[in-house]
Specification:
- The chain has 4 helices and 3 strands, in the order ββααβαα.
- A hairpin with a 4-residue loop joins strand 1 and strand 2 (about 15-20).
- By secondary structure, it is an alpha+beta fold.
- The protein has a single domain, classed as 3-Layer(aba) Sandwich (GIY-YIG endonuclease).
- It has a 3-stranded antiparallel β-sheet with strand order 2-1-3, with helices on both faces.
- The radius of gyration is 12 Å and the shape is globular.
- It has helices spanning about 25-35, 40-45, 60-70, 75-80, and strands spanning about 5-10, 15-20, 45-55.
């Protein structure tokens, strides 16, 4: 079985968007909820995963994360709503 990687976006209580990558979105989101995911999501409480995209390699998922982080808030919302 090939390992899959994901780029994901989380909506926070302050209506901001956090982007990251992982090999297990559910487990990673749980870590964010418990305050163990990222410094950003400790300060901005996560509500839900609003976007995820699957990749065959960790490198591809990381590249997509970097691309998304460069987008404006409006561009991220557009991506989520597609």
């Amino acid at each position: 079985m090939d390992k899959k990687y994901y780029t994901y976006i989380i909506l926070t209580e302050s209506n901001t968007l956090y982007c990251g990558y992982t090999d297990d979105v559910d487990k990673r989101f749980q870590a964010h909820l418990e305050g163990k995911g990222a410094k950003y999501t400790r300060a901005n409480k996560p509500i839900k995963v609003v976007y995820k995209k699957e990749f065959a390699t960790k490198s591809d998922a990381m590249k997509e994360e970097a691309r998304i982080k460069k987008l404006t808030h409006q561009e991220k919302l557009k991506l989520i709503n597609c």
